[in-house]
Amino acid sequence: MDVGRRLLLKAGVAFAALAALPRTLLAAAWPEKAFAATEAGAAMSTLFGTNQATPSAEIKLKVPEIAENGAVVPVTISTTLENVESISIVVEHNPRPLAASFEIPAGTLPNVSSRIKMGETSDVIAVVKTDTGIYSTSKQVKVTIGGCGG
Amino acid sequence: MASKIKVKAKLSGDLAEIKSLMLHPMETGSRKDPDTGELVPTHHITQLTFTNNEKTVMVANFSTAVSKNPYFSFSFSGAKAGDTLKVSWIDNKGATDELETVLK
Predict the structure, then answer these.
(1) Do B77 and A94 lie within an 8 Å CB cutoff?
(2) Mean per-residue pLDDT, B71-99
């Protein structure tokens, strides 16, 4: 084997390692891949490494039963689960199901509120990641006018 | 440019309840411009960060599915009067906005 080729190979490996580094270093990087997923299961697999969440009655998901305007659907999620690391909102029938994901550092209460858009009637899933696993609860929201198109 | 973030912070004991409102179009990329009939490109806040005295207390990652002019609220403990709360966001085009407020 000639030396030139071996050097090139080495450089290639080093470069690949370098390119992979920033992703692991930046813990707070925006999870682009999970947000790009077009199915709820895929979004969860990308974000958590599994799409199997344990149903939990300790998560409280507050959403309206009927949303007249899908462009503004208030969502409040709170939980009594301990050591919460993140809370995510997944809208099953949205073109991009993962709507938002909140990182909860120690000292911050696992209780968040926001407003989201929904394209059509769908289950809204609150996903809570703790140090022991992935938990979820879901509720259906009926949407009268979708909030994603024009 | 003056910040267009609005923040309300309420202290009760060492607990701070934060309510925030941002000005942003949050375009999904699937809406058509009513005049030209062309798709309006995706334009949305990607990350909203809150720090209290430099300590990160919340990182909110948003997709296009967060409503226009996003509203977000949460609470954290360990707060006291005089703390500096900083709110900042960045969008998918690299634009940013930030606001500092003193808890009282």
Answers:
(1) no
(2) 97
